[in-house]
Amino acid sequence: MPLGTKPRLDGLPNIDPTAKLDLAEIDRIFREASGRSVATLIRIFGDIDVAEDAVQDAFAVALRKWPGDGVPPNPGGWITTTARMLAIDRLRRESRGRELASEVALLSTNSDDATIPEEVGPVQDDRLRLIFTCCNPALATEAQVALTLRLLGGLSTEEVARAFLVPEPTMAQRLVRAKRKIKAARIPYRVPDDHELPDRLHPVLAVVYLVYNAGLTNPSEPGLCSEAIRLARLLAMLMPDEPEVAGLLALLLLTESRRVSRTRADGSLVLLAEQDRTRWNRALIEEGQAIVRWCLRRNQPGAYQLQAAINAVHADAKTVDATDWSQIIALYDQLLVVAPTPVVALNRAIAVGEVHGPAAALTLVDQLDLDNYYALHATRADLLQRLGRNDEAAVAYRRAAAMAPTEAERDFFRRGGRGSHS
Amino acid sequence: MTQYLLSVHSAEGEVSAQPTNEQMQQFHTQIGILEADLKSAGAWVFGGRLHEPDTATVVRMSNGAVLTTDGPFMESKEHLGGFYIIEAEHLDAALAWASKVTACIMQPIEVRPFYDEAEADAAWNEAEA
Lengths: 422, 129
Known about the structure:
The complex is a heterodimer.
Chain A: H1 20-45, H2 48-69, H3 75-93, H4 98-108, H5 126-134, H6 141-152, H7 157-163, H8 168-184, H9 197-217, H10 222-238, H11 243-256, H12 282-298, H13 303-316, H14 325-338, H15 342-356, H16 358-365, H17 374-386, H18 390-403, H19 407-414
Helix pairs in contact in A: 1-2, 1-3, 1-5, 2-3, 3-4, 5-6, 6-8, 6-9, 7-8, 9-10, 10-11, 11-12, 11-13, 12-13, 13-14, 14-15, 15-16, 16-17, 17-18, 18-19
Chain B: E1 2-11, H1 21-40, E2 44-49, E3 57-62, E4 65-70, E5 78-88, H2 91-105, E6 109-113, H3 117-128
Antiparallel strand pairs in B: 1-5, 1-6, 2-5, 3-4
């Protein structure tokens, strides 16, 4: 995914073509460093716009200087330091900022510029504060997602808009409105207290999960999947004692391990049972499974951990027939306790179908109140087909095709759920 | 510190089960405790319950003269039933108070920030420019 947040290269004079590698390196550094720098500057200046502008300006300076001078030893720190100086300069020039600038200057006279107060220690991290600000429940979910990707992920407004199939002006408007609300309503820049954390963590994890799924279902945006995993890793590092944070990371890693085998070259979907398991990414599976084992030892199950555990069982099976379906049913039973939704019940029914046969599964599926959910009809279709009730199966596939959210899935169901060979 | 308006909006004609005397008593005790908490925490600015909207009167400028009319400004099914103005460090703190109020009166509470003086000046200057 190209970076739109950094200044346009074509606006710069005399780019040396041999410096191309360095520009790619600068892109990578931007992705890595942007969130941290923005978060630190928000703490220093107490203003999101000031922080964003200054970090962008600092990258403009980096793009001019680094190709010639080389990348400094601590590029992230360099960006933060430069951004802070640029922000102070800018605030000094603007009369309204005079007071603020002198205040900041006062605070920073004792500290060496090379060692910006970039805090250490898990709970003190500015990025953690920032993600809790972005995901404050006082903001709508789509605003939470947009802010998180923009401020922590360093995505441009255009990139965020494209990822969620929204026109860019609409997304820009959404971001402006959210930032205005943060400022006007004083949505705080802080990590919630322990007693608030269970409630407040939920939207944070939901946002990261949404970002991942947006990448998964939108094949032109695979960068969102890696961005979500990067955010999940960051959360896991910042909150090492939260089992659900670890659970989310494991779930994403295990899902990611199968992403390339999930679609054919033409974009059509491949069912789990029909995937080429040799193409599953073993390193991601091992990392995900290790986290699942850690979660099991913690024994504080939650929805993300249980979904990760289900995926870990799938990942264990060399062939679809080797899948430990009764283990999967047991995990779905637990998941139903913490997340009693019809969608979970539907997935459990599918697992029941593998152990007790399609008739047992169909009985469960027909009890569910999910008539508007395409996956219900797709599941019914599959079960009916296995029972030899082909006419009913065809009707169910047509309903699934009419409701499916992506072209790949619509296509899949139109072909009777059999991918290419039917 | 920021000041927030915590407002209670009730829908007209919404028939809720008539509370028993005992429930009313309990409700008053709870509200009393909550308001005492707001005051001792230094969060209280002002608060009160409003009479029904049909007790409202509107005055407005019309052709250079003040016109007085009976009734609420807007005919609406929902109306402002009462409000608190509180002072809080940030929105999370204001929402914590609002959560206590809604748990007590069992009605939704809208939380809205007031402009502070500097913000109001800035907004005024922007509008002038």
